[in-house]
Amino acid sequence: MTDATIDSMKDEHWMRRALELAARAVSEDDEIPVGAIVVSPEGEVIGEGWNRNIAEHDPSAHAEIVAMRRAGQALGNHRLVGCTLYVTLEPCAMCAMAVVHARVARVVYGATDPKTGAAGSVFDLLADPRHNHRVEVTGGVLAEEAGMRLTNYFRGKRGKSPL
Known about the structure:
By secondary structure, this protein is α/β, with parallel strands linked by helices. The protein contains four helices and five strands.
């Protein structure tokens, strides 16, 4: 088995965990189904979260921010050097810049966000050469499942049956 195959299997494993958290966003808080986890360089989950901005009345409580806050608390540091952030939806500009400031090494996301994505689809903030920190990005991991969860959530809000 090649290193690339092993990395791909790890990415799918962690994205499945992020998808479980996305499901909790809906079932526990009726929030948009986005989940995120932060994995340390040693391969341990040090932070996880799901969208909480409605429940917490906090416009910054996106899944990525919640997971990074918890990771920072776990490490006792605002820097998440060497860590990987897994998130079911491509980060927005706010979350992308938080990733850069936290010095996250890598972002792995599921579905692209054609309206506000900031990891390459609409904006490419994570690769902007003006930053003094570069973030490796892998997109499209379990994208179909992540995208379908989002689609069905919004269909449900509009009174339509799931696809």
